[in-house]
Predict the structure.
Amino acid sequence: MSRIAIIGGGISGLAAAFDLEQRRQAAHDVEYTLYESSSRLGGVLRTEYIDGCVVEAGPDSFVTEKPWAADLCRLVGLGDQLIGSNDADRKTHILTRGRLVEMPDGLMFMVPTKILPTGLSPLFSWKTKLRMAQELFHPPRAVNHDESVADFVERHYGREMVDRLADPLLSGVYGGESSSLSVRAVLQRFAEMERTHGSLGRAMLAARRKVSYGPRKAAPPLFTSLRNGMQSLAEAIVSRLNPASLLTNTPVKAIQPESGGWTVSVGGQAEHFDAVIVALPGPAAADVLRNVSSDLSSELGAIQYTSSITVGLEYDLEVRQGLPPGFGFLVPRGEGKRLLAATFVHNKFPHRAPGDRALLRCFFAGNNAESVWDLTDEQIVGVVREELQQILGPQIHGLRAAPLFARVYKWKRAMAQYGVGHLERLQRIETLHTAIPGLALAGNGYRGIGVPDCVRSGRESVKQLLT
Ligand SMILES: Cc1cc2nc3c(=O)[nH]c(=O)nc-3n(C[C@H](O)[C@H](O)[C@H](O)COP(=O)(O)OP(=O)(O)OC[C@H]3O[C@@H](n4cnc5c(N)ncnc54)[C@H](O)[C@@H]3O)c2cc1C
């Protein structure tokens, strides 16, 4: 009999627990206990149902391109609940000198693939447009060191592209700044394109020529989610687990190798296991592993995390009709706002709000989140309302009135920042942790912050231990 402890009940830990439960039911000789410090399972996957709206406190969807989360949804019986984003309305606006400007068609992250829309867009100056044209002639380039996303993008397209697009786009995903994120860890595909093609523009066009969706095969939606919200994934997994194996309100203080296995210390008690999966954010993992290996613990502790705040607000039909079309807007830091982004949820996932309501999801992260962190929820809603009015213009009268509801969700250091040198750090972590038998690591600190990557990391941790 293998007894395995899972520490952390977010989606990474739950995915691991699901795999162990499947093995248990298939009469494999395995047992597991999942320890979660808070009173609920799911970690940052949290959904509230308010006034007919599906309000996501944490992630609202995941990228369709990465299959692991949708696969797990199907395995737990949620296949018929999977929904795609309403890409017919997929427009994003960027606040540019106080005005919302639509991102031009054909822009793949920051790489233009259609000349005309980018050439005509007021989003970029002529200087940047010229850089885009010149970029098409960049020769292949072997770079043998990591660099920041900002440096990489600036090398290709100039500073304006960093400030106006790369930085706000990445803030929406990592909550961090492009000047500290690693291009190899965060934009691996682009780094590879530079190596093989030199020009990202040419590489992107070559890749697009290979993938052609015929008239019968439409491109899949960019984002996938669940009809009743992301928390339903956590709930469906939990409903398939052995309740006796789930310990909430049980923070693990430390783990320690002992007698060929592991001791997990919780409060004044200790439990013995054969193996442990640590499915925690880097700093929490560092803390739990401090008695196991100080080197491993300090590498994990060095993975930076930022805090984020989401604010869900509901408005009436007048606001809905007055908003620009599309999925929402991003705010470059240079615009001097505290908000980093807002999603028009009723457009992105239409059934998440009644047809006569607007559902907005506003986002603060990193330094911007810290700048409002200590305010009361009411004050944070005040900041959001003021900035929404400034950004969306005084012509939407309904925005002056109080929202029909507003909810604030704070996430302390939940988003990993893959800093320059992250992949080298991962190598050191792997060397250190594989030398310790019976220990596996899962979570968003390693090879992907998104829900699909976390699911994959949880499931792979089980394979690592049991094969
Ligand atoms: C606001 C926000 C929006 C996001 N949006 C998206 C999105 O749209 N799409 C997407 O794909 N990803 C998104 N992400 C990222 C993604 O949701 C997370 O990276 C992922 O869910 C993390 O899961 P996890 O299980 O690794 O960690 P967590 O969810 O952080 O879970 C870790 C768990 O461990 C518990 N814990 C901590 N210490 C201990 C201890 N000592 N003992 C026991 N338990 C402990 C915590 O209470 C927590 O429940 C978003 C993240 C945030 C914060």
